[in-house]
From TrEMBL:
GO terms for cellular component: fibrinogen complex. One of its GO terms (molecular function) is extracellular matrix structural constituent. Residues 99-161 form a coiled coil. It is found in: Secreted. The keyword Repeat does not apply. The lineage of its organism: Eukaryota, Metazoa, Chordata, Craniata, Vertebrata. The keyword NADP does not apply. This is Angiopoietin-related protein 7-like.
Length: 443
């Protein structure tokens, strides 16, 4: 900025000299004698000095056309200042003042621009940092997501392996049980150890809580064989049907009509729900000391190992007892839907079972049989029933389709007892034994 002022100074100096040059030209027109001695192209040289300091020089000459030509040499100074040659005019002072203000404004602008540039660099740095952080977070999220999917896949594989191992363990346990039973049969042949799991409710509590272990000559295949081996008390025992592969706990009635009965159904208080699925009727459910269904597989195994008869005991809500006896009874296997074979009726109640239900397949509400759905139980239905001993337990006996909003009768029904489908019995039991059974025989 110092050199700029210096150049402005020299500019005004040259301007003033030009004016002087023009005045000299005019004066030369009036001085004829002197002009002949002075050539028009003569050059005057003036030095500008201040004390001992050489500040610069300039020269002027008159051109042939009467104009003044001014030439100036600027000083080559660094930290020195040339003296003022003349007083500046108001206009020069104004522009010098304006120049100082512009210089200050320019300096302020430079500082402002510098600050803005620094702030811009800081913002760019922050943006870069945020971008790096965002990329790092995205990378972490992507890594976590990949790890999560990998863990999910590992979990699914482990779960599959767990199910496979569970199935293998279950199969191995079943095989071990079968082998154990087979070994025990061979080891104890011709004798067999039986466990009286529970005894008759008529016995004391102490006897009920302490099951008996008794040795018999042959492994029991039903309650009749237990009777023949000297077991004459009613209770829950383990039998091994000849067609089955595992022991089965059954309730043996050793009192009714000479004993030897294997009970497979009982209704007495309504505590057990008989509206069950096919698999439940297949495997059995309930409590052998209360209400229960032994299971269609077990009924098939026992009834198919010889000629069996069926006894059904009935009781109404007035305490009246009746029974029905059938000389021939068996059911087929699951492949044939446990088809019923029953005949040879006798008893104290009119038959409502064999004549209508013989040769019928077993069905439950989940098999799609409309009668089973309406009757809410599993039975050998045939458009739909005259006997339904696995129906709903209605206390008091009498019920109506209108009052219960039913599609049809669904109680524990033996039609010929009351000549009605809307009377539900209080107690029912179904039990079988070999047709050739003779009570009180010695082993």
């Amino acid at each position: 900025m110092k050199w700029t002022l210096l150049y402005r100074y020299w500019y005004w100096l040259l301007y003033c000299q030009t004016l002087l040059c023009s005045t000299d030209t005019q004066e030369s027109d009036y001085q004829e004698s002197d002009s002949s001695q002075t050539d028009s192209s003569q050059t005057d040289t003036h030095l500008i000095s201040s004390g001992l300091m050489q500040c610069g020089e300039y020269s002027n000459e008159v051109m042939p056309n009467g104009q003044c030509r001014l030439m100036a040499t600027l000083p080559q100074l660094e930290e020195q200042r040339c003296p003022d040659m003349f007083r500046c005019t108001d206009e020069v002072s104004y522009w010098l003042h304006e120049n100082e203000e512009r210089k200050q404004q320019m300096q302020d602008l430079k500082e402002t621009i510098s600050e803005l540039q620094e702030e811009l660099r800081n913002h760019r740095h922050r943006i870069k940092v945020l971008e790096l952080q965002n990329e790092e977070k995205n990378g972490q999220n992507s890594s976590l997501e990949q790890r999560f999917h990998a863990l999910e896949q590992i979990y699914e594989e482990a779960n599959t392996l767990l199910h496979v191992h569970g199935s293998l363990i279950y199969d191995m346990q079943a095989q071990i049980r079968n082998l154990t039973l087979a070994v025990e049969r061979v080891r104890r042949n011709p004798g067999c150890m039986i466990n009286i799991v529970r005894t008759s409710p008529l016995l004391s509590t102490r006897d009920t809580l302490h099951p008996e272990v008794q040795h018999i000559r042959n492994c029991p295949i039903d309650c009749a064989s237990l009777y023949y081996n000297g077991v004459h008390r009613s209770g829950i025992f383990a039998v091994v049907p000849s067609l089955g592969s595992t022991p089965v706990e059954v309730y043996c009635d050793m009192e009714t009509d000479g004993g030897g009965w294997t009970t497979f159904q009982r209704r007495q208080d309504g505590k057990v729900n008989f509206n069950r699925r096919w698999t439940e009727y297949k495997d059995g459910f309930g409590d052998l000391h209360g209400e229960f269904w032994l299971g269609n597989d077990n009924i098939h195994y026992i009834s198919s190992q010889g000629d069996y008869c069926l006894r059904i005991d009935l009781e109404d809500w007035n305490g009246k007892h009746k029974h029905a006896l059938y000389q021939n009874f068996r059911i087929e296997d699951e492949e044939n839907q446990y088809r019923l074979h029953i005949s040879g009726f006798s008893g104290t109640v009119e038959d409502s079972f064999s004549w209508y239900h013989d040769k019928q397949s077993f069905s439950t509400p989940d098999t799609g049989n409309i009668c089973a759905e309406i009757s809410h139980g599993g039975w050998w239905y045939h458009q739909c029933f005259f006997t339904n001993l696995n129906g709903i337990y209605y206390k008091g006996g009498r019920y109506s389709a209108k009052g219960k909003n039913l599609l049809g009768p669904d109680g524990i029904v033996w039609y010929t007892w009351k000549d009605s489908d809307y009377y539900s019995l209080k107690k029912v039991s179904m039990m079988i034994r070999p047709r050739t059974f003779k009570p009180r025989l010695s082993p």
